[in-house]
Amino acid sequence: MQHQQQGILDWTKEGRVLTVEQKQFYRDNGYLVVRNCIPQHELERYTNRFQELCEGRNVPTTMSIMRDMTLKGQKLEEKTVNKVQDFGDDPVLFDYCKYLTVLDVVRDLIGDESSSIVAMHTMLINKPPDNGKLTSRHPMHQDMEYFCFPPEDHIVCAWTAMERVNRANGCLVVVPGSHKGKLLPHTYPDWEGGVNKAYHGIQNYDPSMPRLHVEMEAGDTVFFHPILIHGSGANKTAGFRKAISCHYANDDVCRYKAFENQNQIVCHFHLNFSNSVILEGNIERRPRYGKDRFE
């Protein structure tokens, strides 16, 4: 973590909800899992809204609904939609981004009590059963490949499992500590079955790097750094694997910069910057998350 704004990120001080140990785990590993972060009744709201979107009901004009590359031309339904992106104008899904148990952790990781936090990039990711071509997998990559508002240490992703996520249905895979490196060159991987649009992967990725499979229960949330190397495997089950996520930035520190590569231009199309929303968290202090709720 080389770009910390002096005086904002203090890893020796307890946060609003995180302990010093939890904050330092994130500092050292680039990710942190918080158990039971989102309750089941909220996950059901998001799932029901996703089903409505798959039926074409009340879809905001600013939202993108994406299909797996092998299913283009087929009608919208749960088994064909693999991502809903830019849901900032959807009142149900955007409630996730404003959920206080998420925002409290975000503030502890990229700011302090007075920081203005901005929701920058939103996704609901649906991983249907793989059709045999392995297009449901996501190559190992770094999210900063798509973003143009550094510094990286003041950006974090919150990624919440909407149902049980494990190795069989394509859980996240992370390389702990890789966020201490730099942004590596990315490209589309040369996969026999092809790769979905904007699913860039690290060029010459070394598969021998030590990886960790992040298995989660519904409501568990992993927070991770935009330089952390991560990806996900194919869904080899008969069920679905859904997750909802938001990338946040510290609006007091992060600033847009000129594009440096073509991939960020692609990202600029997907990121609905004009609809970024500043989220002011409640100053009321909430209980800390104990050791049983993180790893």
From TrEMBL:
Organism domain of life: Eukaryota
Biological-process GO terms, alphabetical: fatty acid alpha-oxidation
InterPro entries assigned: PhyH, Phytyl_CoA_dOase-like
EC number, as in UniProt: 1.14.11.18
GO cellular component: peroxisome
Keyword Iron: yes
Primary enzyme class: oxidoreductase
GO MF, any single term: metal ion binding
Keywords: Dioxygenase, Iron, Metal-binding, Oxidoreductase, Vitamin C
SUPFAM superfamilies: Clavaminate synthase-like
Cofactor entry: Fe cation; L-ascorbate
Pathway assigned in UniProt: Lipid metabolism; fatty acid metabolism
Family affiliation: Belongs to the PhyH family.
Protein name in UniProt: phytanoyl-CoA dioxygenase
Organismal lineage: Eukaryota, Metazoa, Ecdysozoa, Nematoda, Chromadorea
